[in-house]
Design goal:
alpha/beta, 5-stranded parallel β-sheet
Length: 470
């Protein structure tokens, strides 16, 4: 009998083959239609084709397709597709230049190739994802699961499993008779209670189950050991859920602690020194490049217009809360009239303190550009949670329990929250809570490519203007 895991692995292999075939069709069609004009493409066609396949195979290994993953969302599919396409172009042009005598596509041809590959592959993968959803909704490629225990986390897991497209068949749950029941969000009814938690071993012996999710354990060490031995024997994969529910954006991580393992409350990729070094080197390179090229021109323009339109200093500096809760001076181009409330009162829509020139700078993010000085100094990063003034830190840290978590990393000129609707005035505590949740999501999901995505989104928002930038 083929296991569900084997079927899922085979589905992943099939999807990879389809993806590879799509790539080759696009590549061959592009050369046939002369989309990437190269003087020697006929002479070195085999070299181009073989090199492209090697580069794409490596790119696929570096970034998983993720279509067959049960919780794969369209945004993740597109994000992985963009990474695969970019890695392919870099490897392809590098391999051609280093290992072959064939011509290397220029920047324009490479960018065009990147765009074509991303668009076609994205369409192909999203179509395949739709097929997988229909496959699992019809009851095929499903995973039979059981939950042991109840509570907030058990309910969250059940909510996911009872969504048909994820491909889980939740048979029911075991719990104490007086436990709070688990409901099914699809029909509003209660999930089937299969018995007391000590009856689960008998059920697993008589029924086929693929995965077991634990928020409780059978009474006594002997009962738990017997359950684990049975799961090993029946090849049932076991997953542990925290007994308490604290924040749906948590991404806990197992940590080796001597000869035992512990579960961290948060996953922090930037705790890895290699990731931290990668981010810092990028910050230094980009901030130096900007400060030595475009910034002097912008500085002259802002200086002239500012002196004409409003009296007072060019720069505005303010103490804000930074990495590890330490204070630092954040630099901006001054966009307000000099006022005594600047360190305690945030800007609001149609704020009378903001000048017309200041409103333009805020709308286009020009006022934030001096913060590249903060980045070079090491107080800030290009991407990270936005730093708040000290009054806000004192106020919201008392009202939002996980507010200070956003200071686990350096604050940024731009961030995930700002590019996803949480910019501008925070009128209520709930507004700030949503911003904090997105900041913590960024901390737990950080990657170099996520930073690049946020930077691109920030630039496009600046070009189009942001209604919340006031």
């Amino acid at each position: 009998m083929i296991s569900t895991l084997d079927r899922t692995i085979k589905l992943g292999i099939l999807l990879s083959v389809i993806d590879w075939l799509t790539f080759n069709v696009v590549f061959l069609l592009s050369f046939h239609l002369n989309w990437f004009p190269l003087p020697d493409w006929k002479e070195h066609f085999t070299t181009y084709l073989v090199t492209a396949n090697i580069a794409y195979a490596i790119a696929l290994q570096a970034v998983t397709i993720s279509l067959h993953h049960r919780m794969s969302q369209p945004a993740k599919v597109l994000r992985n597709t963009s990474r695969t396409s970019l890695i392919f172009i870099i490897l392809y042009t590098s391999f051609l230049g280093v290992f072959t005598d064939a011509s290397v596509p220029g920047v324009k041809a490479s960018l065009f190739m990147l765009a074509i590959l991303f668009i076609v592959t994205s369409v192909e993968r999203l179509i395949l994802r739709t097929y997988i959803i229909r496959l699992r909704t019809s009851g095929r490629n499903t995973v039979k699961t059981v939950i042991l225990g109840t509570g907030g986390m058990a309910q969250k897991v059940a909510d996911i499993m009872t969504d048909n497209w994820t491909g889980y068949e939740l048979l029911g749950y075991f719990s104490r008779p007086d436990s709070q029941p688990i409901s099914c969000p699809n029909n509003g009814k209660e999930l089937k209670r299969l018995g007391d938690k000590n009856e689960i071993i008998n059920f697993l012996e008589k029924n086929h189950v693929d995965e077991l999710y634990l928020s409780e354990v059978p009474s006594g060490t002997t009962g738990f050991k017997s359950l684990m031995q049975l799961c090993d024997k029946e090849m049932i994969r076991v997953y542990y859920m925290p007994s308490t529910f604290y924040g749906e954006f948590r991404k806990a991580k197992v940590k080796e602690f001597g000869d035992v393992y512990v579960l961290s409350q948060y996953n922090e990729p930037l705790m890895d020194m290699r990731n931290r070094l990668k981010k810092r080197l990028f910050d230094i390179a980009v901030s130096l490049l900007f400060l030595c090229t475009a910034f002097p021109i912008i500085l002259i323009v802002v200086y002239v217009v500012s002196k004409i339109t409003m009296p007072g200093p060019l720069f505005f500096k303010q103490k804000r809360t930074g990495y590890d809760g330490r204070d630092f001076y954040c630099y901006k181009f001054r966009s307000m009239k000099v006022n005594k409330d600047s360190d305690t009162v945030q800007a609001v829509k149609n704020d009378p303190r903001v000048t017309k020139w200041g409103a333009f700078m805020r709308h286009t993010n020009i006022d934030e550009l001096p913060q590249f000085i903060n980045v070079l100094k090491g107080d800030m990063s290009i991407v990270g949670p936005r730093p708040h003034m000290l009054a806000h830190t004192d106020y919201y840290s008392e009202l939002i329990s996980d507010y200070m978590i956003r200071h686990y990393v350096k604050p940024g000129i731009t961030g995930w929250a700002q590019t996803h609707g949480e910019r501008g005035e925070t009128k209520t505590v709930e507004d700030m809570r949503r911003r904090v949740e997105k900041d913590i999501w960024y901390i737990e999901h950080w990657s170099f490519w996520l930073d690049i995505q946020i930077i691109i989104k920030t630039v496009t928002d600046a070009i189009h203007g942001d209604d919340k930038a006031y």
